[in-house]
Predict the structure.
Amino acid sequence: MRTPMVIANWKMYKNHAEALEFVNEVKDKLPSSNTVEAGVCAQSILLKELVENSNDTLKIGAQNMYYEDEGAFTGEISPAVLENLNIDYVILGHSERRRIFKEDDELINLKIKAAFNHNLIPILCVGEDLDERKAGKVNDVLYNQLNEDLKDLDGSLVSKLVIAYEPLWAINTGLCADSSDAEDACKFIRNFITEKYGLDISNEIRILYGGSVKVSTIKSFIDCENIDGALVGKDTLDPNNFIEMINIIK
Ligand code: PGA
C-alpha cells in the first residue's frame, strides 16, 4: 500500500513569521503520517525553524541542494547540512530550476545520488512543455528525463523515490492538466519503473501530479490508479487549503 501524500512547494514565498504561523496553524490538525503524508518544502533559510516547530504529522523538505558535501561552491546548499537538520525531502529537477537556473539531467542525477547518501528522499520533478505536448512527445520527454535522472541508481533506492509529474504548461498558470492526461503520464512513469526495476519497486514508488492543483481538483487526481498525491504550489500557501487537501485525500 502506498501512503498518499500532499507536498506543499512554497517556492520563494513566506518569511519566517509567516512560515512559522503556518506550521503552528496546521500541525495539530493533520492525521497520522501513516494515513497520509503531509510535507512542506520551503526556502532553505527557513528550514531549521520549521523542523524545530513541526511534529511527526508534518514533514519538512528543501527545494534544492548541491551534490557536494562542502567546498568552494558559493551560494549552494549542502546535502550534509540538510541531513544534519533532519530534513525529510528535497525537491530535485523542478522545472523552475531546469528552466531558469539551467540545471540539466546530469546534474540532477548527481543530486539524486547525493540526496540518498544523506538520507533525504528526493522528490524528482519531470514533465513536458507545451510545444512538446502539442508535438505528441510527452512520453519521449518523460523517458529521456527518467533515463538520465535515474542513471546508475540501485532499485532499492528507487523504491523510496517520489516522482512528481509536473507539465510545465500547468505550473503556476492556473491551467490544470486533465486528470486523464495526468494519469496517462503517471502510468507511463510507473511502466518505465516496472521495465527498469521490476514490479515490486514500481508498486512501491509514489508518483504525484503537480501543476495548478486546487482544493476543488485534488480528488480527481487522487482517484486515478497511478497517482498517489500532489505537489502543490500556490494553493498551499493558505493553511486552510492545505488541511482541506490532506482531509480530501486521506
Ligand atoms: P502550482 O505549482 O501549484 O502553483 O502550479 C506547482 C509546483 O511548481 O510544484
Observations:
- The two ends are 13 Å apart (CA to CA).
- The longest strand covers residues 121-126.
